[in-house]
Every structure is written in C-alpha cells, then in structure tokens.
DNA sequence: AGAAACGGAA
C-alpha cells in the first residue's frame, strides 16, 4: 500500500500548520456535520474536539465520529491516539478492518498494526472475518509464521474455517510463509471449494511461475463447474503461453467465446500473447482483428507478437496502423521493437530505434538498455557500450540486475575483462547469470586460474554452479586444447551432483574439434554415448567437422545416414557440415548432392561448396557457383573470396585471380586479409611470375607472414629459383624457426642444385634450433579399419605382400612408358638407391594396398599429409590406366583425382 | 518489454 501521508508531516512541530492535507477535507466534512468545522488545523485542535466529543458521549452517532476522529489523528501521525479513539468510541460493532487498512495506508508499520490488533484482541474485541483475513495477510507479509498458525488454530476453534475470505487469506498466508506447496496442500484439504478459492490458489501458483500447476488447477476447476474470474482466465492463458500448451490455450479460447468474454480487452490481449508464444502468429492476428476495440495493451501485444517471432517489417506496419488510430506508443511499445530487433539479429536497427524513441521523447529504461547492450556487444561497438554504461550510471539504472548482467556480458564479448570484472564487483545483487558471464569470459580467454577462482567464490557465496557455469569452463578448456581438463570438468560437475547434458558434452566435443583435436572429439562422443546421452543437431555438426578434419569418409557417411533417420539433415548447420565433410573427405558427388538438397542455404553453405570445387581443382565450377549465389541475392564475404582465390590457385588461373582480388575491395567493400594476399602470391609465383610475386609482397599493405613466404618458397622450388628461395627461407626461419617444412623445402632445392654442403648446413641448423621432423604418413580405409603407412616407426604387417604387388605393378607400368623420376629423391645417393627410395613412398604403399583389398570398381581413397611428389603423381596416373581404377588422393594441400591416366589437378599442384 | 550455454566455411 502506498504511503499517502507525506513523511515530512511526521517531523513537523505539532503547533505548526501542515501545508496540504489531501484527505483532511473529507474528514472535516464529516466533522462539519457534527458542528466542529474550522479549528482542526493542528493536532492540538483535534485533541480539543476529541475532549469535547467525550463529554457528549451519549451521542448515538459516536461510531461515525470515532472513525472520523481516528482518521484525523492518523493524518497528524498520532496513530496511538487514533487507535484509542476508535477503540473507545466504537469497538464492539464497527468493522475494524477499514480502520486497520486505513491505519496501514497512513504509513504505519505493519508491525504496529499487528501490535494494535493483539492489544485490542486481548482487550476482548471480537473481530470479524475481514479483519482476521487482513491480519493473516500481514502475518504472511511479515513472515510471522507462529502468529499466523495460532490464528489458523483460533479460526478452526471458532468455526471460522468455513468463511471463503478467510480460507483465501489462509492459503495466501501458507504460500508466503511455508511455500506454494503447502498452499496447494491446504487447498486440496478444503472441503468446500468456492470459485474465489480456485481463483486465489491459481493466482498464487501463477505468481510463483508454477505454470503446469496453474493449468492442472484450471482444468480441475472446470471439472468442478466453478466459474473463473477474468484474472484467472488471464493467468491460465499466460500459463499456456509459458509452457507452450497450444491445445489448452485453444480450449480456454473456446471457453471465452462460450461465456461471451470476448469483449474483455485484457482477456483478448492475453489470448494474443498466448498464441504468439505458441508461434501461432496467424491466430494472434485473428484475435486482434476480431476485437471491436483496441487499447494500448492490445497494440503492444500484437506488436510484441510480430517482433518476438521475427516478422519485423509487419511489426512496423502494425506500429503505423496504431499511430493512425491515434493511439500513442508508450515505452513498452518501443521496448518490444527494440527487443525484437535485437533478438533477431537486426542490431543496426536496434540503434536506429533507440534514436527514434529518444527523439519521440522517451527515456530508455532498464529494459530498453538490455536490448541495446545486446546489440552493441554483437556489433562489437565497445565505444557505444561504454557510452551506454555512462548513461546507466547517470540515470541510476545500474541497480537493475538485468542491466548489470548485460553490461558484464557486453564487456566480456568485447574482450574487456577488466571492465567486466569491475561492473561485476559493483553489482549489488549478483545472480547466477552474472557469475556465468564472467566465468565464461575468463575461460574463453584461457585465463583458467581466474575462472576457477570465481567458481570457488560463487560456491562460497552460496550460489551453486549450474550447467551453464560448467559448460563455460568445459568449452574454454576444450577450445584451448586442454581436453584433459575439459573432461575432468565433466567429472567434477558430476561429483557436484549435476548430470552433464547434451549441451555439456557437445561443448567438449565441439571445443576439441575447434582446436583441431578431432580424434579427441570422436573419443568423447563415444564416452557421451556410454553416458546415455543422445546427440542433437549441434553434436552432429561438431562430429562432422571432426570427420572432415580427419577425412573420415566412411564415418561421415554413417553420420549422414543417422542424420537422415533422425531428421537432423533438415538442419542447415548439419547439412552444411555434411557438404564440407564430403568435400574434404573426397566425395564431391555426395557433397554436391547434399548441397543441392539444402532448402535454406546460408552463405556458409555456398562457401563450403565453392571451397569444395576449389580444392578439387574445378575452378570453373567454383566460379559458376559463385555467380549462381550472386543471382540468388547473397552477398559474398571474405571467406567466399578465399575460396575463389584458392580455386584460381589450384587451377592456375592468373587473370581470374587478379579479377577476384581487385573485385573484392572495389565491388564488395571487403578488405583483403593476409589469406587473400597469400593466395595471390601463390597464384603468381606458381604460374612462374616470380618477379611479380616478389613485387606484390614488397608492396602489400600488411606485414608478410609465414603463409606468404611459405607460398613463395614452394614456387621458388618448382621454378628452381635459388636466389628468391634463400630470401624467403631467411624470413621463414625467423618467423617460424620450428617448422620443419621450410627446412625440408630448402634442402630439396639445394639437393636439386647439387649443393650438398648447404644441405648439411641446414641439417646442422635444424639440430641446433631443435626442429623435430614431422612424420610422413598416408592411410587408406579398408572396411572399418584405417591402414596407416608411416615413413618411420612400425611397418604395416602386410608390407611384404604390398612390395611384391608394387614391383609387379611397376613392371606393368613400365611397359606403358613409366620411368621413375629420381629427381624427387633429395638425398646424396646413387640412382639405384634412389629408385628403391621412390618405391617406399607411403602414397604408393597405400594405393597398392587399396588395389589389393578393394572390391572391383570401388575407387581407392588415400590421404597423405605432405605435398605429393611428382613421381608418385605420375605413378598414380599410370596405375589408373593399368588397373582401370579411380584413385582419390588427398595430400596436404589439395585433391587429386586420377582417372584414365589423367589427374584433375592438371599437373599443377 | 528485459539477460547467459553447445553447431557449419578460411
């Protein structure tokens, strides 16, 4: 209840005149009837009148006078005298509850009200049910459990327990003091359930957010033929929205029509919200259109339906209709628009709407601020974020827990952890959202000590870490390659009593594959299944990423089948991941089939497919797909151009490369990144334009990194340009001294040039720097088993048979003109040894094993981790003729598809 | 009318 008495009155000296007394006039009118007008401007004059009244106490209008007098005392803040006046004058037959309510309204503490009640109860006043109900309510508010329970006992003893008002009060009291469950229990035990009682218990459950219970009660209420009031219908409709109970909502709609309640605006507005929360915009709209009258709330409900469901343009249309019908928007209207645009990713519009609402004279409140902060953090507009932070402080909105949490989140998302921490420290009430934001902020930055420390402090402050807290930690650990700690976190959350769900496990799995730990991804997927957790869309996309990373075509195919069975294939993320998996694992036909099947392709889907063609060496298809994409109205991004340029690189298209490189900045306003520059260097140098590539490197606006020099060095080797190569190598040895590939390339170049002294010098350098050789391997999958062929380490068990087959094969190939290319061996040994060396290349072993084990007609698929040498490349072409087979070879940089003596790379790799 | 967790492309 609002305090009507200005508090300064209580501090005013009793003799001075109160300035304005809003309720005094009515009191005076009453006293005026009794002939005492005019004098009552001070407490002392009230007292004087009181004294006079006591003198003529035989007056039979004493009760009315007592009430007026008591009210007068209350207005002057003398509650004690007020109560006494009331008691003396009228106690036994006047209803006390208006007095007590009045008493409370004048700003007296509820404790005092209770004290008075007890005092007069002890003086023998017998109160009616309304007073008792009022006092019970106070007991609830003050958490006076024992007094309330005593009153319950007293009521039963006096037979009051049949009074519906009191029963309502009791249910209410139990709810506030002992929890909603005891209210529900008490309600169940009540024999006679009047309509009001149903209304009360539904109201309480609705307040507590027990939506399922609300619906259960509402349905039972109808079964007992009780008639709900409109508040109850509104509560039930709200419940149908919250738990997405569309059928129940429709039934209530029917009920509303049957009882002719469709003229009740509030009920109709609730119907609109109910349908909107059940994603049935057309039904929401139908209710809105059927209404004879619309108030502001109705307009807000329908606008909110449109914005919540992402129909932003329609929302604006309704907004203008509303303006035309002369209803002015309020802050709620603006906040609906803000939150809808923010929710559906129209972040720029959020900022525009903010400006519009401010121009219209509305000051953003805490709700507006949360939507705006979300947009600001997604747009990475840290500067705007800080301005809003200042606005929040100026306007005292920082006490709002939503605003505080949104600020922490905004700073976390903009990598501003120190600000996030300081906002967090200043929050008066921290809820679990704020803790989780900050913990995941530290975790994603790899600052695990801070994250773990926060985890400890939140437990100490009595906030139990939840699934989201743990997910933040798990994902952070997994993304930073610390998968042991990530799985440990899964176990820790188990021992804290939480059951990791599919999101927790997916965080682990996806974190590992984001960090290229694909094998771990697959391992943890198995553990997840052992834990009895089923995969969802997100898990499947992460797994496909792992399969793509490992080129595990068979595994990917299994997941594809599973996705079709479970309907995951409908998800654009899953479908796009499939396209990527198939292109990386070497099944372009399937990649293309899946791509064509996707109904709602996103930019990523197009990019994956363009990239697929590019790595496969089909630059023409990549380019025509790009044109198709443009025709479909999609704007390319930086990744599209990386794909196009690497297509040009793999197909040796210099002119097209230049064209796309220029076009991305001039036509599409996309600044080239280091990857684009690196592609361009590769395109130029590979085609033999080494001088142009050199100039390009010298004039590029970004500092050349290892990818630039690496691309350049590889082409220097192809074109045997020692001078450029040495410059490139010098840079590379500084930029990445521990990468063995650079030393190997350089040694190869020296060996071709017969500069064995330099080869030895580099070997020494590698030893001095401590560069480790990376193992060279190839593998092929036969049935369910992966067969590895490593240059070093454990040999394959069937190696003898493989060499037997390979010798046989080579002699057949020689008949067709094959000649071993010994220039591929960069060791200072004689030609016979070099030829033996060539036979041991892991690609040849894997291909041969494939030939031995594959059923007829099946293509052979081999994955290799280096750049395939020209002898193996030539050999594969001959093999495809001799054995009439197709060979897919994925090497460290691209794809080769050998068929009928030709390779799709056109010998350019 | 309002906040946080897992997913695809280089």
UniProtKB/TrEMBL annotation:
Question: Where is region (Disordered) located?
Answer: 1-20
GO BP terms? RNA modification
The signal peptide stretch is none
MF terms (GO), sorted A to Z? RNA binding; zinc ion binding
- Residue ranges under compositional bias (Low complexity)? 9-20
The source's domain of life comes to Eukaryota
Which keywords are on file for this protein?
Repeat
In this protein, which residues make up the domain named DYW?
Answer: 817-909
Can you tell me which family this protein belongs to?
Answer: Belongs to the PPR family. PCMP-H subfamily.
Q: By what name is this protein known?
A: Putative tetratricopeptide-like helical domain, DYW domain-containing protein
Native organism is Rosa chinensis (China rose)
Q: Top-down, what is the taxonomic lineage of the species of origin? A: Eukaryota, Viridiplantae, Streptophyta, Embryophyta, Tracheophyta
